[in-house]
Write a structure and sequence with these properties.
Layout (H helix, E strand, L loop, with lengths): L1 H26 L4 H4 L24 H29 L5 H35 L1
Helix pairs in contact: 1-4, 3-4
Length: 129
């Protein structure tokens, strides 16, 4: 049990450490200096449509985070279903039932972590954009 708590703490710490990096990378535009030079206004890379293709609610960071959250949520749901089936078919075996409960608890904790991570990413993108 202590190992799982430690692992969850490490994962939360990594998410919190990466959050500022996402905010900085979302706010950084490497083309600003180039597009402000004389004659660069005709470049296709310097024409913007008003939508940031990297950050913002329609950007690649947001889409990638959403796809990751959806895939993880589907996987956790499958693990919950498998754990429930294992629990049902344990047939009175306490060890199998305990393993199934641990499986379902881990999946629920994973869903909570993914939901929190998605909320953090959305918050950072909205603040940066």
């Amino acid at each position: 049990m202590m190992r799982r708590v430690r692992l969850a703490g490490i994962l939360v710490g990594l998410m919190l450490c990466c959050a500022p990096a996402l905010a900085v990378s979302a706010a950084y535009n490497p083309l600003d200096a180039t597009c402000n030079t004389p004659g660069a206004s005709s470049s296709t890379a310097c024409h913007t449509t008003g939508q940031d293709t990297v950050s913002g609610n329609t950007g690649e960071l947001y889409k990638t985070a959403r796809v990751f959250a959806i895939i993880t949520a589907i996987a956790a749901t499958i693990v919950i279903i498998v754990g429930a089936l294992n629990y049902i078919t344990a047939g009175g075996d306490a060890q199998k039932a305990a393993g199934a409960r641990r499986m379902m608890l881990g999946a629920v904790i994973g869903l909570v972590v993914v939901a929190l991570a998605g909320g953090i990413v959305t918050f950072i993108i909205n603040q940066a954009g």
